[in-house]
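ok here's the first one, seq then C-alpha coordinates
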Amino acid sequence: MSEIKVVGWGRYEDESSGELSFSIMGGFIGDGDRWQDYLDGTPEECHKYAEAIRVSVIKNNIRITGEQHQYDSEGAPVFSDGATTRLSYRAWGDLMAAIWAEHEDSDYNYMSFYMSF
Protein backbone atom coordinates (compact mmCIF):
# COMPACT_ATOMS: atom_id res chain seq x y z
CA MET A 1 0.00 0.00 0.00
CA SER A 2 1.21 3.49 -0.77
CA GLU A 3 2.02 6.07 1.86
CA ILE A 4 -0.96 7.64 3.60
CA LYS A 5 -1.25 11.42 3.22
CA VAL A 6 -3.82 14.04 4.10
CA VAL A 7 -5.21 15.17 0.75
CA GLY A 8 -7.69 17.70 2.08
CA TRP A 9 -9.80 18.89 4.96
CA GLY A 10 -13.57 18.51 4.88
CA ARG A 11 -16.67 18.43 7.01
CA TYR A 12 -16.91 16.05 9.97
CA GLU A 13 -20.20 14.69 8.60
CA ASP A 14 -18.93 13.99 5.07
CA GLU A 15 -19.09 10.42 3.84
CA SER A 16 -15.84 8.53 3.56
CA SER A 17 -14.64 5.09 2.59
CA GLY A 18 -13.68 4.40 6.18
CA GLU A 19 -13.62 6.03 9.57
CA LEU A 20 -10.75 5.79 12.02
CA SER A 21 -10.97 6.23 15.77
CA PHE A 22 -7.60 6.97 17.36
CA SER A 23 -8.87 6.76 20.92
CA ILE A 24 -12.15 6.32 22.74
CA MET A 25 -12.42 9.44 24.86
CA GLY A 26 -9.15 11.33 24.81
CA GLY A 27 -7.95 13.67 27.49
CA PHE A 28 -4.70 11.88 28.32
CA ILE A 29 -2.13 14.32 26.88
CA GLY A 30 -0.89 16.61 29.63
CA ASP A 31 1.88 19.13 30.12
CA GLY A 32 5.23 17.51 29.39
CA ASP A 33 3.82 14.92 26.97
CA ARG A 34 5.08 14.84 23.40
CA TRP A 35 4.37 13.03 20.12
CA GLN A 36 5.69 9.64 21.26
CA ASP A 37 3.38 9.77 24.29
CA TYR A 38 0.49 10.27 21.90
CA LEU A 39 1.55 7.35 19.71
CA ASP A 40 1.99 5.15 22.77
CA GLY A 41 -1.70 5.68 23.59
CA THR A 42 -2.93 5.21 20.03
CA PRO A 43 -3.64 1.89 18.26
CA GLU A 44 -0.68 0.96 16.07
CA GLU A 45 -2.87 0.65 12.97
CA CYS A 46 -3.66 4.38 13.30
CA HIS A 47 -0.05 5.56 13.52
CA LYS A 48 0.36 6.16 9.76
CA TYR A 49 -2.83 8.26 9.76
CA ALA A 50 -1.78 10.19 12.85
CA GLU A 51 1.58 10.88 11.25
CA ALA A 52 -0.13 12.08 8.06
CA ILE A 53 -2.22 14.50 10.13
CA ARG A 54 0.89 15.68 11.98
CA VAL A 55 2.69 16.45 8.71
CA SER A 56 -0.31 18.33 7.26
CA VAL A 57 -0.98 20.27 10.48
CA ILE A 58 2.60 21.49 10.76
CA LYS A 59 3.00 22.20 7.04
CA ASN A 60 -0.22 24.25 6.95
CA ASN A 61 0.01 25.70 10.48
CA ILE A 62 -3.38 24.25 11.41
CA ARG A 63 -4.39 25.03 14.99
CA ILE A 64 -8.00 24.05 15.37
CA THR A 65 -9.94 22.88 18.38
CA GLY A 66 -12.09 19.80 18.80
CA GLU A 67 -15.09 22.05 18.34
CA GLN A 68 -13.72 23.32 15.02
CA HIS A 69 -12.80 19.76 14.01
CA GLN A 70 -16.46 18.78 14.36
CA TYR A 71 -18.23 21.92 13.08
CA ASP A 72 -16.01 23.81 10.62
CA SER A 73 -16.26 23.13 6.90
CA GLU A 74 -12.56 22.21 6.78
CA GLY A 75 -12.06 20.57 10.18
CA ALA A 76 -11.73 16.87 9.38
CA PRO A 77 -8.74 15.39 7.57
CA VAL A 78 -9.38 13.35 4.44
CA PHE A 79 -6.73 10.76 3.63
CA SER A 80 -5.32 9.54 0.34
CA ASP A 81 -7.16 6.21 0.75
CA GLY A 82 -10.50 8.01 1.17
CA ALA A 83 -10.73 7.49 4.94
CA THR A 84 -11.36 10.22 7.46
CA THR A 85 -11.28 10.46 11.21
CA ARG A 86 -13.96 11.81 13.50
CA LEU A 87 -12.75 12.42 17.02
CA SER A 88 -14.28 13.72 20.22
CA TYR A 89 -13.26 17.18 21.42
CA ARG A 90 -10.90 15.58 23.94
CA ALA A 91 -9.38 13.13 21.47
CA TRP A 92 -8.80 15.93 18.95
CA GLY A 93 -7.29 18.05 21.72
CA ASP A 94 -4.87 15.20 22.50
CA LEU A 95 -3.79 14.98 18.87
CA MET A 96 -3.24 18.71 18.41
CA ALA A 97 -1.53 19.13 21.80
CA ALA A 98 0.92 16.32 21.05
CA ILE A 99 1.69 17.68 17.59
CA TRP A 100 2.36 21.25 18.73
CA ALA A 101 4.09 20.27 21.98
CA GLU A 102 6.60 18.23 19.99
CA HIS A 103 7.02 20.74 17.17
CA GLU A 104 7.47 23.76 19.43
CA ASP A 105 9.03 21.92 22.38
CA SER A 106 6.40 23.59 24.57
CA ASP A 107 3.90 22.23 27.03
CA TYR A 108 0.35 21.87 25.77
CA ASN A 109 -2.38 19.61 27.04
CA TYR A 110 -5.61 18.44 25.49
CA MET A 111 -7.49 21.40 26.99
CA SER A 112 -5.32 23.76 24.90
CA PHE A 113 -7.18 22.50 21.82
CA TYR A 114 -10.42 21.23 23.37
CA MET A 115 -12.83 23.93 22.27
CA SER A 116 -12.99 27.59 21.36
CA PHE A 117 -13.23 29.85 24.38
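and now the second one, same deal
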Amino acid sequence: MKHAPNIAPNVSRDFTLPLEVYGGELLTFELPDLGGEWQPLPEHFLEGISFTSRFTASGSHYPWWMQTVHVFGGSIIGTNNRAIVEYSAGEGELECALSVKQVRLIKAIGSRPTQVNTPARPTADKYLHFKWQNGSRLALSRLMRPEQRLRKLFSRVAWNEFSAVDENWRAQILGHFSFKPIKDNSGLITIYPERVTGGVFDNRADIELPIKTPTEREVVFEQAHLLSVLKVASEIKFIHEGDHSKLLFKADNVRGFLAARQRVPS
Protein backbone atom coordinates (compact mmCIF):
# COMPACT_ATOMS: atom_id res chain seq x y z
CA MET A 1 0.00 0.00 0.00
CA LYS A 2 1.48 3.34 -0.95
CA HIS A 3 0.26 5.06 2.24
CA ALA A 4 1.91 2.63 4.66
CA PRO A 5 5.65 2.81 5.43
CA ASN A 6 7.91 -0.16 4.78
CA ILE A 7 7.51 -2.36 7.82
CA ALA A 8 10.66 -4.23 8.83
CA PRO A 9 11.32 -6.53 11.82
CA ASN A 10 12.48 -4.78 14.96
CA VAL A 11 14.04 -7.92 16.46
CA SER A 12 17.80 -8.29 16.80
CA ARG A 13 18.07 -11.96 17.80
CA ASP A 14 16.15 -15.20 17.34
CA PHE A 15 15.67 -17.72 20.15
CA THR A 16 14.51 -21.31 19.87
CA LEU A 17 12.84 -23.08 22.78
CA PRO A 18 13.72 -24.99 24.88
CA LEU A 19 16.51 -22.85 26.33
CA GLU A 20 19.13 -24.11 28.78
CA VAL A 21 19.31 -22.19 32.08
CA TYR A 22 21.70 -22.43 35.02
CA GLY A 23 22.54 -25.98 36.15
CA GLY A 24 21.72 -27.57 32.81
CA GLU A 25 17.96 -27.34 33.42
CA LEU A 26 15.91 -26.84 30.30
CA LEU A 27 13.46 -23.97 30.17
CA THR A 28 10.33 -25.17 28.41
CA PHE A 29 7.28 -23.23 27.42
CA GLU A 30 3.82 -24.38 26.45
CA LEU A 31 1.36 -22.08 24.77
CA PRO A 32 -1.77 -21.65 26.88
CA ASP A 33 -5.08 -23.15 25.81
CA LEU A 34 -7.15 -20.04 25.24
CA GLY A 35 -10.46 -21.80 24.90
CA GLY A 36 -11.62 -19.49 22.14
CA GLU A 37 -11.60 -19.64 18.35
CA TRP A 38 -9.00 -18.05 16.10
CA GLN A 39 -10.65 -15.61 13.71
CA PRO A 40 -9.07 -14.28 10.50
CA LEU A 41 -7.98 -10.65 10.52
CA PRO A 42 -8.68 -8.26 7.62
CA GLU A 43 -6.13 -8.57 4.82
CA HIS A 44 -4.83 -5.03 5.35
CA PHE A 45 -5.17 -4.95 9.14
CA LEU A 46 -1.51 -4.01 9.69
CA GLU A 47 -1.59 -1.21 7.11
CA GLY A 48 -4.86 0.05 8.60
CA ILE A 49 -3.73 0.33 12.21
CA SER A 50 -0.39 1.79 11.10
CA PHE A 51 -2.02 4.48 8.94
CA THR A 52 -4.73 5.52 11.39
CA SER A 53 -2.27 5.68 14.31
CA ARG A 54 -0.66 8.64 12.52
CA PHE A 55 -3.89 10.58 13.05
CA THR A 56 -4.21 10.05 16.82
CA ALA A 57 -3.53 12.56 19.59
CA SER A 58 -0.87 12.27 22.29
CA GLY A 59 -0.88 13.74 25.78
CA SER A 60 -2.69 13.08 29.03
CA HIS A 61 -5.05 16.01 28.41
CA TYR A 62 -6.70 14.13 25.53
CA PRO A 63 -9.41 11.51 26.21
CA TRP A 64 -8.49 7.86 25.69
CA TRP A 65 -10.47 7.52 22.47
CA MET A 66 -8.30 10.16 20.75
CA GLN A 67 -5.13 8.27 21.71
CA THR A 68 -6.21 4.93 20.22
CA VAL A 69 -7.18 3.37 16.90
CA HIS A 70 -10.67 1.90 16.77
CA VAL A 71 -11.21 -1.41 14.98
CA PHE A 72 -14.75 -2.15 13.77
CA GLY A 73 -14.23 -5.35 11.80
CA GLY A 74 -12.73 -4.16 8.50
CA SER A 75 -13.15 -0.46 9.31
CA ILE A 76 -10.32 1.14 11.32
CA ILE A 77 -10.70 4.73 12.57
CA GLY A 78 -8.38 7.24 14.21
CA THR A 79 -8.81 10.89 15.22
CA ASN A 80 -6.83 13.71 16.81
CA ASN A 81 -9.82 16.02 17.34
CA ARG A 82 -9.06 17.93 14.11
CA ALA A 83 -8.81 15.17 11.52
CA ILE A 84 -10.60 11.84 11.50
CA VAL A 85 -9.69 9.02 9.10
CA GLU A 86 -11.22 5.67 8.23
CA TYR A 87 -9.19 2.87 6.65
CA SER A 88 -11.01 0.02 4.86
CA ALA A 89 -8.86 -2.99 5.71
CA GLY A 90 -11.02 -5.85 4.38
CA GLU A 91 -13.30 -8.44 5.97
CA GLY A 92 -13.07 -9.10 9.70
CA GLU A 93 -15.05 -9.37 12.93
CA LEU A 94 -12.65 -8.02 15.57
CA GLU A 95 -13.85 -4.98 17.52
CA CYS A 96 -11.33 -3.35 19.84
CA ALA A 97 -9.37 -0.21 20.64
CA LEU A 98 -5.57 -0.32 20.37
CA SER A 99 -3.16 2.23 21.80
CA VAL A 100 -0.38 3.62 19.63
CA LYS A 101 2.16 1.67 21.72
CA GLN A 102 0.26 -1.55 21.03
CA VAL A 103 0.25 -0.75 17.31
CA ARG A 104 4.02 -0.37 17.45
CA LEU A 105 4.37 -3.74 19.17
CA ILE A 106 2.36 -5.44 16.44
CA LYS A 107 4.42 -3.71 13.73
CA ALA A 108 7.67 -4.76 15.43
CA ILE A 109 7.05 -8.42 14.50
CA GLY A 110 7.82 -7.41 10.93
CA SER A 111 4.85 -8.90 9.05
CA ARG A 112 1.09 -8.78 9.28
CA PRO A 113 -0.79 -10.88 11.85
CA THR A 114 -3.28 -13.23 10.24
CA GLN A 115 -5.52 -14.32 13.13
CA VAL A 116 -6.86 -13.07 16.44
CA ASN A 117 -8.33 -14.83 19.46
CA THR A 118 -10.57 -13.09 21.97
CA PRO A 119 -11.17 -15.83 24.58
CA ALA A 120 -14.23 -15.64 26.80
CA ARG A 121 -12.68 -17.43 29.78
CA PRO A 122 -12.50 -15.22 32.94
CA THR A 123 -8.74 -15.78 33.25
CA ALA A 124 -8.00 -14.82 29.67
CA ASP A 125 -10.61 -12.33 28.51
CA LYS A 126 -8.48 -9.31 29.47
CA TYR A 127 -6.18 -9.99 26.51
CA LEU A 128 -6.19 -10.02 22.73
CA HIS A 129 -4.08 -12.79 21.22
CA PHE A 130 -2.62 -12.24 17.75
CA LYS A 131 -1.05 -14.95 15.63
CA TRP A 132 1.21 -14.77 12.56
CA GLN A 133 1.61 -17.11 9.61
CA ASN A 134 5.00 -18.28 10.94
CA GLY A 135 3.51 -19.23 14.31
CA SER A 136 4.53 -16.10 16.24
CA ARG A 137 2.03 -15.02 18.89
CA LEU A 138 1.50 -11.81 20.81
CA ALA A 139 -0.88 -11.16 23.73
CA LEU A 140 -1.96 -7.57 24.39
CA SER A 141 -4.09 -6.26 27.21
CA ARG A 142 -7.54 -5.42 25.93
CA LEU A 143 -8.51 -1.77 26.12
CA MET A 144 -12.02 -0.36 26.15
CA ARG A 145 -14.47 -1.10 23.36
CA PRO A 146 -14.15 1.14 20.28
CA GLU A 147 -15.99 4.43 20.39
CA GLN A 148 -19.15 3.88 18.34
CA ARG A 149 -19.84 7.58 17.86
CA LEU A 150 -16.85 7.87 15.53
CA ARG A 151 -18.53 5.69 12.89
CA LYS A 152 -21.60 7.90 12.78
CA LEU A 153 -19.57 10.96 11.78
CA PHE A 154 -18.92 9.49 8.33
CA SER A 155 -22.62 9.12 7.55
CA ARG A 156 -23.28 12.83 8.06
CA VAL A 157 -21.47 14.00 4.91
CA ALA A 158 -21.84 13.23 1.19
CA TRP A 159 -18.88 11.32 -0.26
CA ASN A 160 -19.36 12.33 -3.91
CA GLU A 161 -18.37 15.15 -6.28
CA PHE A 162 -14.72 15.31 -5.23
CA SER A 163 -11.89 17.14 -7.03
CA ALA A 164 -8.81 15.15 -8.02
CA VAL A 165 -5.56 16.31 -6.41
CA ASP A 166 -3.07 17.25 -9.11
CA GLU A 167 0.50 16.28 -8.18
CA ASN A 168 1.87 19.68 -9.23
CA TRP A 169 -0.83 21.44 -7.15
CA ARG A 170 0.09 19.30 -4.14
CA ALA A 171 3.82 19.89 -4.60
CA GLN A 172 3.41 23.66 -4.75
CA ILE A 173 1.43 23.83 -1.51
CA LEU A 174 3.76 21.44 0.35
CA GLY A 175 6.80 23.28 -0.98
CA HIS A 176 5.60 26.73 0.03
CA PHE A 177 4.07 25.92 3.40
CA SER A 178 6.33 23.26 4.96
CA PHE A 179 7.91 25.87 7.24
CA LYS A 180 8.53 25.73 10.98
CA PRO A 181 6.14 28.06 12.85
CA ILE A 182 7.44 30.37 15.53
CA LYS A 183 7.03 29.01 19.08
CA ASP A 184 3.43 29.12 20.39
CA ASN A 185 2.09 29.54 16.83
CA SER A 186 0.27 26.89 14.79
CA GLY A 187 1.36 28.19 11.38
CA LEU A 188 -2.19 28.88 10.24
CA ILE A 189 -2.79 28.39 6.51
CA THR A 190 -5.71 30.15 4.84
CA ILE A 191 -7.18 28.76 1.63
CA TYR A 192 -9.10 31.09 -0.70
CA PRO A 193 -10.69 30.22 -4.06
CA GLU A 194 -7.68 31.60 -5.98
CA ARG A 195 -4.78 31.70 -3.50
CA VAL A 196 -3.29 30.16 -0.35
CA THR A 197 -1.58 32.20 2.37
CA GLY A 198 0.27 31.47 5.61
CA GLY A 199 3.33 32.23 7.66
CA VAL A 200 5.38 31.49 10.74
CA PHE A 201 3.15 33.83 12.77
CA ASP A 202 -0.58 33.12 13.10
CA ASN A 203 -1.60 36.78 13.05
CA ARG A 204 0.09 37.69 9.77
CA ALA A 205 0.60 35.96 6.44
CA ASP A 206 4.07 36.42 4.93
CA ILE A 207 3.71 33.71 2.23
CA GLU A 208 1.18 33.87 -0.60
CA LEU A 209 0.76 31.28 -3.35
CA PRO A 210 -1.51 32.32 -6.27
CA ILE A 211 -3.23 29.04 -7.10
CA LYS A 212 -6.81 27.95 -7.73
CA THR A 213 -8.47 25.77 -5.08
CA PRO A 214 -11.83 23.92 -4.87
CA THR A 215 -13.14 26.01 -1.96
CA GLU A 216 -15.93 28.56 -2.39
CA ARG A 217 -14.86 30.74 0.52
CA GLU A 218 -12.00 31.43 2.93
CA VAL A 219 -11.09 28.52 5.23
CA VAL A 220 -8.32 28.31 7.84
CA PHE A 221 -6.40 25.21 8.94
CA GLU A 222 -3.52 24.50 11.28
CA GLN A 223 -0.42 23.76 9.25
CA ALA A 224 0.49 20.35 10.69
CA HIS A 225 -3.01 18.93 10.23
CA LEU A 226 -3.52 20.33 6.72
CA LEU A 227 -0.18 19.09 5.38
CA SER A 228 -0.68 15.61 6.87
CA VAL A 229 -3.95 15.35 4.92
CA LEU A 230 -2.64 16.81 1.63
CA LYS A 231 0.32 14.40 1.65
CA VAL A 232 -2.00 11.38 1.34
CA ALA A 233 -5.16 12.68 -0.35
CA SER A 234 -5.92 11.76 -3.96
CA GLU A 235 -9.28 13.59 -3.96
CA ILE A 236 -10.59 16.48 -1.85
CA LYS A 237 -13.82 18.38 -1.30
CA PHE A 238 -14.67 21.43 0.83
CA ILE A 239 -18.05 21.62 2.54
CA HIS A 240 -19.48 24.61 4.41
CA GLU A 241 -22.22 24.54 7.03
CA GLY A 242 -22.94 27.95 8.48
CA ASP A 243 -19.74 29.24 10.08
CA HIS A 244 -18.09 25.80 9.99
CA SER A 245 -16.10 24.25 7.16
CA LYS A 246 -14.53 20.84 6.55
CA LEU A 247 -12.04 19.44 4.08
CA LEU A 248 -13.08 15.95 3.00
CA PHE A 249 -10.44 13.71 1.43
CA LYS A 250 -10.12 10.25 -0.09
CA ALA A 251 -7.25 7.95 -1.06
CA ASP A 252 -6.71 4.23 -1.63
CA ASN A 253 -8.75 2.48 1.10
CA VAL A 254 -8.96 5.80 2.99
CA ARG A 255 -11.50 8.51 3.59
CA GLY A 256 -11.65 11.24 6.20
CA PHE A 257 -12.16 14.89 6.91
CA LEU A 258 -10.36 17.79 8.54
CA ALA A 259 -12.23 20.46 10.50
CA ALA A 260 -11.32 24.06 9.72
CA ARG A 261 -10.84 26.56 12.51
CA GLN A 262 -11.79 30.15 12.96
CA ARG A 263 -8.98 32.68 12.82
CA VAL A 264 -8.25 34.26 16.18
CA PRO A 265 -8.52 38.07 15.89
CA SER A 266 -5.13 39.77 16.22
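notes on #2: The helical segments are 45-53, 100-108, 149-153, 167-177, 223-230. Residues 24 and 140 are 32 Å apart (CA to CA).
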